[in-house]
Design a protein that fits this description.
This protein is α/β, with parallel strands linked by helices. It has 14 helices and eleven strands. The strands form four sheets. A five-stranded parallel sheet has the order 2-5-8-1-9. A hairpin with a 2-residue loop joins strand 6 and strand 7.
Length: about 325
Amino acid sequence: MSSPNPELAAQLKAAAEHLALVRTEVGKVIVGQRDLVYRLIVGLVARGHILLEGLPGLAKTAAVSSLARATHCQFSRIQFTPDLLPGDITGTLIYDPIKGTYSTRQGPIFANLVLADEINRAPSKVQSALLEAMQERQTTIGDKTWPLPDPFLVLATQNPIEQEGTYPLPEAQMDRFMLKVIVGYPSAAEELIILDRMASTRPDFSLNAVVSPEEIIGYQGLINHIHVDALVKDYVVRLVVATREAASGKGVAPELKRLVRIGASPRATINLTLAARACALLEGRDHVTPDDIKLIAPDVLRHRILLTYEAEAEEITTESIVQTLLSKVKVP
């Protein structure tokens, strides 16, 4: 562990308290779903895009829009449909017949927080329009490349693939999401609170914008000062490598060979470390612990492990694969 730094400790404590206010504001609208709200803020401070998957009506869109209302960030929403075109996302060139020149009209991708709602409702060529924006944080319109605002975060929602009228996301695009969060049903007690709050023709929630884009950028820089011990780094690498070894029948879980087709990419190693640092920041700590890794690993890895047809036939999920590896990879 790094030597104590009083100034850093004070900054981390202040950041954790400030970001807790964001969680409180979002909680004015979203009942329960603490894990979902927590991971939205992890992605925000770790500069990582997030994919939310769940059945309709589970407050995925409401959670993202509430996060936007709790910040001073510019927000835009794109409803993905089968007839959407790439230019509807990035923008297009407009010809002026009088001047004989083209001007650029920027699309909704030019915002700090971009909600890509039901992203798997559009064909892959439209989904691919997001690839450059998500990875390079820029987009090309005509022959000119435009930088996107900072901070920039894509928060996408999707219904499960087996739902009618959906398209699987390209693997290259899936890998660009730092986290994939599964949104489940609320408990009976939580649903009763939802009923009391929302059973109105005009439910009204006043959210305060408690964090600015500049403060978010500051927190994104602050996580770089959170210490990651060499043993923790080794744990991260061993965990990610174990997903690949599982596909070849080697490593700590050779029995997974018949279930795992492809393991996680090096981007998983990077994202797992960044997300764990963000978890430490939310707790006001100046170092990452193995518990941070274990907490966020399922969200980082579940969409990066490809299963065999045999696993799919047996309805085995990547969630169970990740839990098996977490139980078998030695913790420092």
